[in-house]
Structures are given as C-alpha cells and as structure tokens.
Design brief:
Blueprint lengths: L1 E5 L2 E8 L4 E5 L10 H7 L4 E5 L16 H15 L4 E6 L1 H12 L4 E7 L6 H4 L3 H9 L5 H12 L2 H6 L2 H12 L10 H9 L15 E6 L7 H10 L4 E5 L6 H4 L1 H17 L2
Parallel strand pairs: 3-4, 3-5, 5-6, 6-7, 7-8
Antiparallel strand pairs: 1-2, 2-4
Helix pairs in contact: 1-12, 2-3, 5-6
C-alpha cells in the first residue's frame, strides 16, 4: 500500500501490473483490497489501482463531510498521483455512483465505465424494501454468529449458502472487506448518507458514447436488477448484463465471470467498439 495526502486525508491505495490503467472503486464499508480477485487476473494486461475510500481502512482521517462528489475527487487525485491522464473506471455499489460522478464531472479522464451491482439514484437504495429492512436489522442485532449469517444473506444467493459452508464464506469475506461481517465500520452511516444524497438520473444522457457496461445480479437485494436496467437505459449505448446465479457480492462470488466481462469490455472500449 502507498499513501497520498489529499484534502486532509492520507488516502491509502495499492497498485499492480502494467498496461492500460484501470481504477477500481469500492462500495459501502468495504476496503479497496476487496478488488484482489479482479486485480490478480487483470494485472496481467493492465495497470490496476485500488484504494480505501475516505474514512475507511487506511484512508484516515475522514476530515469533514462525506459526499459522492468528494470521493470522486479523491479518485481523481489518486489518478494524478500515479500520473494517469485517464483510466478504465470500475465501480461497485456506492463505487458505481462515484464512478458515474467522475465521468460526468471529468469525462476526459474516463476511458470506459464498468458499473457493477449499482444504480443512478442513491435514495432508491437508502429507502430499502421490506426484505432489506429485515436483513439489515438481522445483520445488526443478535449474536456475532447471527449477524454474520444475516449479512451473508445480503451478499450471497440462497443456493450458495445452502450448498457451501457459511462460516468459511464469512471468514473469506472478512479478509476482503477488512473487518468482521458482524461489525460495521464507523464511517458506514456517513457513506450511506452520502449515497442517499446523490442522484445522477437526469444527467445520464450526457454519458452517451462513453463505453459503459452495467452488470446486475439477479438475487441482489441492495441493487436489484430493475435499478441496473434503469441505469443502463439512461446511458445511450450502454451494455447490460444480468448474472442469474449471483447477489450483491458478485465480484467476490464469481470473480472469473466478472473478470471475463471486464477484460472483454476494456478490449471493446480500446478498439472503439
């Protein structure tokens, strides 16, 4: 990991590989290292950069009010630190909103967009369904074991939890997330508030012509496919893919599928197709 000071925060980031640049942006309460399954594959052909969002993990202190706009500025500052004039930008969940804002505010810096398990309007997610209210409550109340199990039901589909060891998954995801699934990092609610305040819906048309891939997971209770379809429909020319056997943890659950989609998208964008 390396550090770059920007607007009162020591932003923690990592980089690996060589080739066309790829910037990875994570979602709520997840450290940048959760992109490891993508970086390990894509670094063979690309220069990869990932980071902890402001106030999370190694990127401290938070230093002031959090917003999607400010987190997009952080991402751009890290591109500057690496000397990148542009990059393929990949965002998951909240990271998808940050990626959208980076493209809307500084399109020349974005070679392509890959928007995974995400949406255009944050309040569609921060005003949750009855199912998400129940799962969210269960992930915060009860024993640590119960909270872990409830969180797993948010990020993994039922079929996976029925046939695989949930405790092994909890341990694996804790390593990627940077914290035990029973615990929410202190910055979580501030990230949720920042997400809920952001809405790119009316501006999506301005991204016409920017190579964009939108990927949704059929079992995702946070960013259900209807939100992904609406996002893709709002960006003229965007390609939409729905993964039937996945949930919100798609990049960690099915890394090979996600990596193949990203690699293909980067090649298409570079070829102008």
């Amino acid at each position: 990991m390396a550090f770059h000071e920007y607007r009162g925060c020591q932003l923690a980031y990592g980089f690996a590989g060589a080739g066309p640049p790829v910037l990875f942006i994570q979602g709520v309460a997840v450290q940048g290292a959760a992109w490891r399954p993508q970086v390990e594959r894509l670094r063979e052909h690309h220069a990869c950069l990932w980071f902890d969002n402001r106030g999370l993990g190694g990127s401290q202190p938070l230093d002031g009010r959090l917003s999607v706009e400010r987190m997009a500025e952080d991402a751009r500052a890290l591109m500057d630190a690496r000397g990148w004039d542009s990059a393929h930008v990949v965002g998951h969940s909240l990271g998808g909103l940050i990626a959208q804002h980076l493209a809307l505010s500084d399109r020349a810096r974005v070679r392509s967009l890959s928007l995974l398990c995400t949406f255009a309007r944050g309040r569609d997610v921060t005003r949750p369904s009855a199912r998400m209210i129940w799962l969210g409550l269960r992930s915060r109340v009860g024993t640590r074991h119960q909270r872990r199990r409830a969180f797993l039901r948010i990020v993994l589909p039922p079929e996976v939890l029925a046939r695989e060891d949930p405790d092994a998954w909890a341990e694996r995801l804790a390593e990627h997330f940077g914290h035990d699934l029973a615990d929410a990092p202190p910055v979580t609610m501030k990230q949720m508030a920042a997400m809920g305040a952001y809405d790119a819906t009316a501006r999506l048309g301005a991204l016409a012509g920017l190579p964009t891939l939108v990927v949704s997971a059929a079992h995702d209770p946070i960013a259900p496919p209807r939100l992904g379809r609406a996002l893709a429909a709002g960006i003229p020319g965007a390609r939409y893919v729905e993964v039937a056997e996945a949930s919100h943890g798609l990049p960690l659950q099915l890394p090979e599928r996600v990596n193949a989609l990203l690699h293909e998208h980067f090649l298409r964008a570079s070829a102008g197709g």
